[in-house]
Task: inverse folding
């Protein structure tokens, strides 16, 4: 029996059965056809985007922060989207694995850029994240970084000049950033010479806004390595900043292992330390730490020579 549209009951039954089976198969494949990703954000109300005063200077800052995604313990969270800003804002900090830090890349001013263009077919649109940084050198170190980065999955943080200097994140847990470095020696003496690093990722949102900590190995913000109880040696491979442990008596550091010439190790005493620790450096006198806030730095200057180069100690 046909209805007014010309379909028989049998046709309708078969169509419904095929649709039901299709949904079951799609669910087992992770929802690749009927995915609801991003539906939550659709409930966020529109807001008025009015003209605002203040600086709207273009460009990005000269320092770019890079880390291998395998060195990240956890990403900051994304709050439930209740406002337009919350859709694109990270909450909290990146938690890094022990003794892992963000690496800095210097980029010539007005040579860096961040873009996020929408691509994809109808009902499948996404943001293609792209950034560039230009390093004005072709040193062995810069070329080596170019060679290393091409094979790494990374996360990159870039600072905008305007909008309060907000930090933007390229790369996510699911889609890490890829980085390709292209060298150009230039032709004329006045040409630009260096390496252009191209950074790329993608996502359902623009590069996220981040206001948390950025821990580098050149700041004192990174987590120190607490020495074992009664330790008398320091292993530089564990970090660059060491805090005295809960010693049972006064100790003297007898060796710094795994250091090369020019390496600097910082030793500190804090409120959790107990009993003093001392170091006698070659031709440098003795540093003694026995109160919270005291510290000294030791630099390796020769095969067996370690000199106290800075500090605040007894």
Result:
């Amino acid at each position: 029996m046909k209805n007014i549209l010309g379909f028989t009951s049998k046709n309708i039954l078969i169509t419904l059965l095929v649709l039901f089976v299709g949904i079951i198969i799609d669910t087992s494949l992770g929802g690749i056809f009927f995915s609801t990703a991003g539906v939550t954000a659709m409930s966020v109300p529109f807001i008025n985007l009015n003209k605002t005063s203040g600086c709207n200077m273009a460009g990005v800052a000269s320092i770019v922060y890079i880390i291998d995604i395998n060195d990240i313990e956890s990403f900051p969270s994304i709050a439930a989207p209740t406002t337009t800003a919350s859709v694109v804002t990270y909450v909290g900090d990146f938690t890094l694995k022990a003794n892992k830090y963000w690496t800095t890349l210097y980029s010539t001013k007005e040579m860096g850029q961040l873009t996020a263009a929408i691509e994809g077919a109808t009902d499948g649109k996404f943001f293609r994240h792209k950034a560039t940084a230009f390093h004005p050198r072709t040193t062995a170190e810069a070329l080596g970084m170019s060679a290393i980065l091409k094979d790494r999955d990374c996360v990159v943080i870039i600072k905008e000049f305007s909008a309060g200097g907000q930090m933007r994140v390229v790369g996510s847990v699911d889609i890490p950033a890829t980085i390709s470095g292209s060298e150009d020696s230039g032709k004329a003496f006045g040409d630009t010479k260096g390496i252009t690093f191209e950074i790329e990722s993608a996502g359902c949102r623009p590069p996220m806004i981040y206001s948390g900590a950025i821990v580098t190995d050149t700041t004192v913000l990174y987590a120190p390595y607490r020495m074992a109880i009664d330790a008398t040696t320091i292993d530089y491979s564990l970090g660059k900043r060491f805090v005295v442990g809960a010693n049972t008596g006064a100790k003297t550091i007898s060796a710094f292992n795994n250091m090369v010439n020019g390496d600097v190790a910082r030793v500190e005493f804090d409120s959790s330390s107990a009993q003093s620790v001392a170091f006698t450096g070659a031709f440098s006198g003795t540093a003694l730490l026995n109160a919270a806030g005291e510290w000294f730095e030791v630099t390796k200057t020769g095969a067996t020579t370690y000199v106290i180069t800075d500090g605040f100690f007894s």
In short: The mean pLDDT is 85.
